[in-house]
Model the fold of this input.
Amino acid sequence: MSIQTSKIKLSAVEKHFTSARGERQVAVSPLDLEIQSGEFVCLVGPSGCGKTTLINLMAGFEQPSAGSVTIDGRPVSGPDPDHIMIFQDYGLYPWRTVLGNVLFGLQAKGIPAGEARDRALATLELVGLRHAIDKHPHELSGGMKQRVAIARALAVEPSVLFMDEPFAALDAFTRYHLQDELLRLWQETRPTVVFVTHDLDEAIALGQRIVLMAPNPGRIQRVLEVSLPHPRERTRDDFAFFRRELFTEFHLVHQMALQEAEYSI
Amino acid sequence: MSITKSAHNRVLPGFGLTLGYTIFYLSVIVLIPLSALFFKTATLSWGDFVATVISPRVIASFRLTFGAAIAAAVANAVFGTLVAWVLVRYRFPGKKLADALVDLPFALPTAVAGITLATVYSSNGWLGKYLEPLGIKVAFTPLGITVAMVFIGLPFVVRTVQPVLEELEPELEEAAACLGANRWQTIRRVLLPSITPAVITGFALAFARGVGEYGSIIFIAGNMPMKSEITPLLIITKLEQYDYAGATAIASVMLVISFVMLLVINILQKWSRRYAA
Done:
């Protein structure tokens, strides 16, 4: 294995907003984080811990108030087809077919029609939707829609996938299935994945590292290395060990958040 | 059969009551007056009816009214969408005021609008005196009629497109940005398809309003037969000559044309919404 260099590097990153009443609210207090190339990292934490702000900073939707965010050593200045965000609400274009949606990014890049079609079909094959290419999003189930969104992202061959609670709107069975699918795709195409979730089991099933965040102000509470090989058997003892570890920590964070909320009232 | 079935499957009762009320209300307010129109028209013989509605003056007024209404609705569809975009997407001082101004054409008495427009666009008016040397005459020409129709139709487009823009999921544009679409591609391939149904609705409303408009137009139109005489004015003229059947004949033709055009627009709109969830 070659020497690992940081793919994504956050140095002293800070983000605050000014509320309508002019109060300064700290969404993310200064934090450092390094993510290696090809790594699968999960960000977990209670609401208000800044995990969504953090992923938006990395994806270039927001700019840090202080500090720097770099991908491959270059500061992130905006959205870029090399690092694609996948949303909870899919963000599919309802007037385009499944194939049309996957073609979107390839057309934007100006790839010739024939080649674009071949690449789109290959990616749809990869996510198991080859049979549904002529359907429109409203004809698909939530799980299928998210698979289209993933195919659309993979078609432009990004080196980083940002996923903001992508499976939160799906039922448990579909969620398990898509988690396994995502792991398979990750192992086949090996992008760097940053995955935001509030589901601790999901984080343990997927992440090589789990970044547990805490609110008020948004910060990193603990980083947990999950040394289990993929795919992970959710009922095994070692899975339960990490589960217990994370739940204990999470309970602590949650208690703190509640207490601080009470004090602030 | 299907009616009773759907009535029994609903959680809330009252299908019969609401349908009955709807039919009664529509009959009293819309259907009875409209059928009276056609009954009055029917007092004319077929020959007289045809002679009335294809007389050159009437045909000229149809062409002017529908032509100007379509031109005005197109202008409103473009500029009303821009106004809605600015009001939704940007913050600027006086935005609330600008937002309120959009509704003014709804509230202003049409005669006031007509007199104001005629004054401003006449050859020595505020705007007219700068347009006149350029060879553009607005007041007392078909162009003036279009201007008046644009004025009264603007709120329809703005108010139908505005909520759609407000509700637009930010993910659609963010996904486009991620996938490498530039601004122009995002506008053409993401925004326009999203708002097209609303723009068509606004277009239809502005068009219908333009066709039916009377008050603001007669002041700016000049009302020269064959040149700048709109159909509603021609109907009034017939009424003043006690030619009630002639007036209703023109009115029923206008009604049928309007109805067919709105029907086509509605079908178009339904088609443009075919993929909505």
